[in-house]
Design a protein that fits this description.
Blueprint lengths: L3 H11 L1 E3 L15 E3 L2 H13 L13 H18 L7 H15 L16 H15 L4 H8 L12
Helix pairs in contact: 1-2, 4-5, 5-6
Length: 159
């Protein structure tokens, strides 16, 4: 339901797009849901704008959102399954983990190896709040189900 023209303008001006429209349960409509955009994302929006020149949105006007989702699932899921992803929702988990890494400079707890750096408590908390906002959740507990539980440091660490 993304308005490609608006998204492209926001990406160019603000470096992020707001994806409130069409959010689950309407929760995101009252809160900005800013998704950061770099050069690759802007190029993808330009390509989409060129491809869908006479449409405001990526969903063709002659089909319902439900049917569109079925079509997308029929195309995407076989490809995703070849890469170990069984449901489209798992892409949210991937996004959350990659975003956590970008924001903290450390692997998320669910992917952490023994020698990996652990972010400060403040950095971890800030990343979880940002990701929660971007994914449209009002609670960081949901983000914890994606990136892993907070690590409690032993011996007086800052966690």
């Amino acid at each position: 339901m993304l308005d490609i023209g608006v998204a492209l303008r926001e990406a160019r001006v603000d470096g992020a797009i707001d994806i409130r429209r069409g959010t689950k349960g309407g929760r995101g409509r009252s809160v900005e849901r800013l998704i950061p955009c770099g050069a690759e994302q802007i190029q993808a929006l330009i390509s989409a704008k060129n491809l869908f020149r006479y449409q405001q949105c990526l969903i063709p006007s002659n089909i319902s959102l439900k049917y569109f989702n079925i079509q997308i699932s029929n195309v995407c899921l076989p490809i995703l399954k070849k890469h170990g992803i069984s449901r489209l929702h798992e892409l949210r988990v991937f996004y959350a983990c990659e975003r956590y890494r970008e924001l903290t400079g450390c692997s998320p707890p669910c992917n952490r190896q023994g020698g990996d750096n652990v972010p400060s408590h403040q950095s971890d908390e800030r990343a979880r709040e940002i990701i929660s906002q971007e994914l449209g959740h009002s609670r960081i507990q949901i983000v914890s189900s994606y990136v892993g539980r907070k690590i409690r440091m032993r011996g007086g660490g800052d966690e």
